[in-house]
Write a structure and sequence with these properties.
The protein is built from 5 helices and 3 strands; from the N terminus they run ααββαααβ. It is an alpha+beta fold and 172 residues long. The protein has a 3-stranded antiparallel β-sheet. A hairpin with a 5-residue loop joins strand 1 and strand 2.
Length: 172
């Protein structure tokens, strides 16, 4: 095992020990008013470890507590125009946002945006215009989009689909 890897494991173990010590400290899990008063009374603790110069910038260690908010990673597909149904005269103009759990999903979609847009068009071709007028039809479309886009991506997974624009019309 290399020296850098040993130092990194030691740093991770120290960070975990510090986190567990904070979680088992008196007052952990008490009301917000008590914790705010406690936080104001006690100075902020200094970290128990520091990465050496050979590791700085090479490893990032982020610990999220239960009350930390993790922003979702989103990829927008704007102004997608497509036919609905193979033998019908319905047209759609849709803009949507794909939500991922990690930034790798957004990066993969940016690289393969054409494939994502084509997957959405193919899914719309299998729909019926009358069904998309109902809420149940739109929810079914969302589920189909999630499963088919996940199947077309290599490693990323879509968590949710949000329609920002959804217009369908019958063309005569």
């Amino acid at each position: 095992m290399s020296k850098d890897r040993k130092i990194f494991r030691l740093a991770c173990a120290s960070a975990l020990a510090a986190l567990l010590a904070t979680a088992t400290a008196p007052g952990f899990g008490s009301s917000r008013a008590e914790s705010k008063a406690e936080a104001a009374a006690t100075p902020e603790p200094k970290p128990h470890f520091e990465l050496g110069p050979s590791l700085k910038g090479r490893y990032d260690l982020t610990v999220f507590l239960g009350n930390d908010r993790v922003d979702a990673f989103q990829f927008a597909v704007n102004d997608l125009r497509a036919n609905i149904g193979r033998r019908s005269n319905w047209m759609s103009q849709i803009s949507l946002v794909l939500e991922f759990g990690a930034g790798t999903g957004v990066a993969e979609c940016e690289i393969d945006e054409i494939r994502v847009r084509e997957t959405i068009r193919l899914i719309l071709l299998d729909q019926q215009g009358q069904q998309l007028l109902t809420t149940a039809g739109k929810l079914k479309l969302k589920q189909e989009l999630i499963s088919m886009i996940n199947a077309s991506l290599k490693s990323a997974r879509v968590r949710q689909v949000y329609f920002t624009e959804f217009a369908i019309m019958a063309v005569r």
